[in-house]
Amino acid sequence: MNNTKAPTVYVLIRIYKLQTNKDDNEPYYSLLEEAIRSVDENAKVYDGIVKMVVNDDTHKDDVLYPEHKRRVLDILERHHFSIGKSNLFFSETDGKGSSYATLIVRESFLLWSEANDDYDSIAVTLDQDDELKDNALANIAYEMLKTKANICISAYETEDYSNLSIIKDNGKNHNEAARR
Question: Which of 8, 53, 66, 100 is the most exposed place for a label (fewest CB within 10 A)?
Answer without folding.
Answer: 66
